[in-house]
């Protein structure tokens, strides 16, 4: 089973986190989407922040380790980490993704 | 069950709709993604419009009320409102989302 | 069953592919999201490319034909083509989407 994991980050941190996750084989590919404005409720008030969104492609098997790593890298106390399951995908892309996540010596 | 709800809007309306949905506790958090160009078929012709996308985090229980509210705020006759289910998420984020959606006195 | 299909492309190709898919009734609507930076592993190294993301709204029935068409239009050997299933959607939008995908004489 494969997943798209959505994470939002302060813009200045997004690129380094994306590279780290690919470097450590926790993600096969990360799309870094800039120019996001996030609106939320914090301590009873409506707050807004500019953010960057990561769309992280990984497997169900890697997810627990990925989630823990994002938590350790993320500056927020409660980061947004949401996983959506692929319904289908190009088979060659699925194969490439599995291979990208395999640990090598 | 939690949902990411995708909605596209004219850019000048997106920010106010996002704030309204959080203010009314129909969404815990909304990401406003600018710079979208939408291509579609309308009355037999290919049409294009600049739009802004909202990625709205909510619960299955709130969805019917959220959908009705977006319809009432949206300038199009047939707005795009699509909900995707979380497969998993950071437990602390899920707890924060539930709390953000609770009605308070 | 309806799908959101995520595809990433070189920015200069994205707009034409979006129009072609709508023109050929393989998609009811395509959102073209610019300003994406993709990070991935290629031949053992971390690589990065500017890309544009398409979010393609289609049906499960049309998916095989859509996937084949994207492969034929896409300049990469292994394009990213990922489909996520709608959990719910505005009924009028679902009806509009079905109608947009119907072949006409």
Automatic annotation (TrEMBL), chains A, B, C:
<dbReference type="GO" id="GO:0010038">
    <property type="term" value="P:response to metal ion"/>
</dbReference>
<dbReference type="InterPro" id="IPR004323">
    <property type="entry name" value="Ion_tolerance_CutA"/>
</dbReference>
<dbReference type="InterPro" id="IPR011322">
    <property type="entry name" value="N-reg_PII-like_a/b"/>
</dbReference>
<dbReference type="Pfam" id="PF03091">
    <property type="entry name" value="CutA1"/>
</dbReference>
<dbReference type="InterPro" id="IPR015867">
    <property type="entry name" value="N-reg_PII/ATP_PRibTrfase_C"/>
</dbReference>
<comment type="similarity">
    <text>Belongs to the CutA family.</text>
</comment>
<protein>
    <submittedName>
        <fullName>Divalent ion tolerance protein CutA</fullName>
    </submittedName>
</protein>
<dbReference type="GO" id="GO:0005507">
    <property type="term" value="F:copper ion binding"/>
</dbReference>
């Amino acid at each position: 089973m494969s997943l798209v994991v959505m994470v939002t980050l302060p813009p200045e941190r997004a690129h380094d986190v994306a590279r780290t996750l690919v470097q450590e084989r926790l993600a096969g590919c990360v799309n870094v989407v800039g120019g996001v404005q996030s609106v939320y409720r914090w301590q009873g008030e409506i707050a807004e922040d500019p953010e960057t969104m990561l769309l992280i492609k990984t497997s169900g098997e890697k997810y627990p380790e990925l989630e823990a790593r994002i938590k350790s890298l993320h500056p927020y106390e409660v980061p947004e980490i949401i996983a959506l399951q692929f319904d289908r995908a190009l088979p060659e892309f699925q194969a490439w993704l599995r291979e990208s996540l395999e640990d090598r010596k």
